[in-house]
Amino acid sequence: QVRLVESGGGLAQAGASLSLSCAASGRAFINYDAAWFRQAPGKEREFVAAVSWGGGTILYSEDVRGRFAVSRDNAKYTASLQMNDLRPEDTAVYYCAGHLRTAGTVRRESTQYESWGQGTQVTVSS
Question: Which residues make beta-bridge pairs with 94?
């Protein structure tokens, strides 16, 4: 498994932007689908966005579609989440996750991902 470390969280006002980064421990990351999940206090962890290992397939939740953009740089073993037009309901701990996929397509289910970062807090004030 790859080790993943998120960075870039913090405090923002509604309507502002933040960018999250996920750094992987090594070259194996280029074979992993990468996803972002979030968990707000008292709520279950939910899918935010995912990008396939080659970058050709991207998925978003309906809550963030049109506001967030997921990307990856396999030369740097990183994945990123650009968050625009932030809303108070985006407040959560954001997690980067990785899945070494051998078949099928990139998935939204957290159970499909075996590598997880420690999370980074994003707080949006109104």
Answer: 38, 120
